[in-house]
Amino acid sequence: MDEATLQARIGYSFQDPDLLRRALTHRSAGPQNNERQEFLGDAALNFTVASWLYERFPQEREGVLSRLRARLVCTEALAEIAEELELGKLVYLGPGERKAGGHRRESILADSVEALLGAVLLDGGVEAMQGVIHRLWEGRIADLDPRSVNKDPKTRLQEHLQSQGQPLPEYQLVEAVGADHQRLFYIECTVVGYDPVRGEGSSKRRAEQEAAQRMLACIGVEDD
């Protein structure tokens, strides 16, 4: 995995490679870091996604659009994209942060995605940045359903168990197979009183959500 591969994956080649390098530099690595690019990328991403949602769902109220946007740009979603891009392999970290496993930390991965978008904006302009966002978010936006925006399976399962006075579910990684850029994760969800169920997905988060959905079905909790 190198910077050339990353550029191929996002569909954009930097004219100024220093902008890309800074986007991948965490603040623990020194003063020339990605915080300013992260600030820019965060604002640009929110605006772009909000505009798309406004156009795609003309009948939805502001509250629904806000929740849809939050689902698309939350830390978990950004970290998931970072995992798909294998950004963790390229992020420059200070010795202490690296030793602590910072290249796997969700917040660092999410911030790096925002910084990357900010770098594309600075290097190629608005259209270039929106092209990268479209490439990385297209499938996620296509899968959006306003009717299911309120709560994801993990949240619904947790709230159901809490309402019944039961212990919270446990999630355990059972297996991860495939090449780094095509990894498939298998997560087991365990709830007291029920047989464990498994979910699979291209990220741990997706596998956990699928496992939670299957557990909800076993328990007999209907969709909202």
From TrEMBL:
Molecular functions (GO terms): double-stranded RNA binding; identical protein binding; metal ion binding; ribonuclease III activity; rRNA binding
Main localization, broad class: cytoplasm
Binding site residues for Mg(2+): 38, 111, 114
Domain RNase III intervals: 3-125
This enzyme's EC code(s): 3.1.26.3
Superkingdom of this protein's organism: Bacteria
Pfam families associated with the record: dsrm (PF00035), Ribonucleas_3_3 (PF14622)
One Gene Ontology biological process: tRNA processing
Keyword field contains tRNA processing: yes
Keywords from the named record: Cytoplasm, Endonuclease, Hydrolase, Magnesium, Metal-binding, mRNA processing, Nuclease, RNA-binding, rRNA processing, rRNA-binding, tRNA processing
Reactions catalysed according to its record: Endonucleolytic cleavage to 5'-phosphomonoester
Stretches assigned to the DRBM domain: 152-221
InterPro entries listed in its UniProt record: dsRBD_dom, RNase_III, RNase_III_dom, RNase_III_sf
Cofactor requirements of the protein: Mg(2+)
Catalytic residues, chain numbering: 42, 114
Keyword hit for Nucleotide-binding: no
UniProt subcellular location: Cytoplasm
A GO term from the CC aspect: cytoplasm
NCBIfam families per UniProt: RNaseIII
Function: Digests double-stranded RNA. Involved in the processing of primary rRNA transcript to yield the immediate precursors to the large and small rRNAs (23S and 16S). Processes some mRNAs, and tRNAs when they are encoded in the rRNA operon. Processes pre-crRNA and tracrRNA of type II CRISPR loci if present in the organism.
Subunit organization: Homodimer.
Protein name: Ribonuclease 3
